């Protein structure tokens, strides 16, 4: 459960970040690990899986500083999937918060 | 662990994957190291934050195995899938097992009949060898006809078996979705 839970949340984070603009892998990892404790390597398998599901496409872009970077771009299919996940997430977190409120604020 | 050690370790764990995919994965991680170094991090620190190659390998291979089961339809995979679907509910025991046994019996019967027809000229020859006086043209032509028919049946069975397997896998997937009620695992 715990692992699955984290995976689902991680998926949601990646899709949400790509909703606004395209990012390269390192950027995505950094933005997520600034907020949540993750083992950073697990973002890459997730990116590959979601790309196979056609939720995003990739393209290479040169950079001034160093090697060319692989950018991830959300597809329409990916955007639909993001909205589905968001709905599920909102229902889920509302439910959990509701239960916590009942159980913890009994003073 | 520095960059080279990390990539080598990962590479050795991904031998199951195609060369193309493996290089692509290593390229992704190599890029991660390079940008991290521009960011002022040491290779060791980057490798440490990435986590262990064995964990990454597990996550990469998990989706590889799922694809493998979907793309190959070997007998053991089909049996595993049937068993998994039956395990989903008692209701399915009746729904899946009945048609499955019927289908397998039909296919087996077809194969046995086809093979027997093809082998009938051999039976005729044995007959002639054992009882040399009984050579009958009618028997010979009849067994040759059967042999031809048998070849047709066998060719037909090849197609029937292939399509049944495909159909069965589709049917099982449908069942899994039905029982799970559209829940995503």
From TrEMBL, chain A:
Gene3D superfamilies: Winged helix-like DNA-binding domain superfamily/Winged helix DNA-binding domain
InterPro entries: Metal_resp_DNA-bind_regulator, Tscrpt_reg_PadR_N, WH-like_DNA-bd_sf, WH_DNA-bd_sf
Superkingdom of source: Bacteria
Residue ranges of every copy of the Transcription regulator PadR N-terminal domain listed in the record: 14-82
Entry-linked SUPFAM superfamilies: Winged helix' DNA-binding domain
PANTHER family to which the protein is assigned, alphabetical: PADR-FAMILY TRANSCRIPTIONAL REGULATOR, TRANSCRIPTIONAL REGULATOR, PADR FAMILY
The protein's name: PadR family transcriptional regulator
Organism of derivation: Gracilibacillus salitolerans
From TrEMBL, chain B:
Provenance organism: Gracilibacillus salitolerans
Protein name, UniProt field: DUF1700 domain-containing protein
UniProt keyword list: Membrane, Transmembrane, Transmembrane helix
Entry keyword Transmembrane: yes
TM spans (from-to): 81-104, 111-131, 137-160
Annotated Pfam families: HAAS
């Amino acid at each position: 459960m715990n692992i699955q839970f984290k995976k689902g949340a991680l998926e949601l984070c990646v899709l949400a970040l790509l909703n606004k603009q395209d990012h390269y892998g390192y950027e995505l990892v950094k933005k997520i690990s600034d907020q949540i404790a993750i083992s950073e390597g697990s973002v890459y398998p997730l990116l590959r899986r979601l790309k196979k599901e056609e939720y995003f496409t990739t393209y290479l872009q040169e950079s001034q500083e160093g090697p060319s970077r692989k950018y991830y771009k959300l597809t329409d299919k990916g955007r639909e999937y993001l909205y589905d996940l968001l709905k599920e997430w909102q229902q889920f977190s509302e439910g959990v918060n509701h239960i916590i409120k009942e159980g913890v604020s009994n003073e | 662990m520095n960059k080279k050690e990390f990539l080598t370790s990962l590479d050795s764990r991904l031998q199951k994957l195609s060369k193309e995919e493996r290089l692509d994965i290593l390229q992704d991680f190599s890029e991660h190291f390079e940008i991290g170094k521009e960011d002022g991090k040491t290779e060791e620190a980057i490798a440490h934050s990435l986590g262990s190659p064995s964990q990454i390998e597990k996550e990469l291979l998990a989706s590889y195995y799922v694809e493998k089961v979907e793309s190959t339809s070997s007998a053991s995979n089909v049996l595993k899938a049937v068993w998994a679907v039956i395990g989903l509910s008692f209701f399915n025991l009746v729904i899946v097992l009945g048609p499955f046994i019927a289908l397998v019996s039909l296919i087996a019967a077809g194969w046995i009949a086809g093979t027997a027809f093809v082998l009938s000229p051999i039976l005729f020859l044995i007959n002639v060898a054992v009882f040399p006086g009984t050579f009958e043209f009618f028997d010979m032509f009849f067994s040759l006809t059967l042999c031809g028919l048998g070849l047709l049946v066998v060719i037909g069975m090849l197609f029937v078996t292939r399509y049944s397997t495909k159909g069965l896998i589709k049917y099982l997937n449908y069942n899994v979705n039905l029982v799970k009620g559209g829940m995503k695992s």
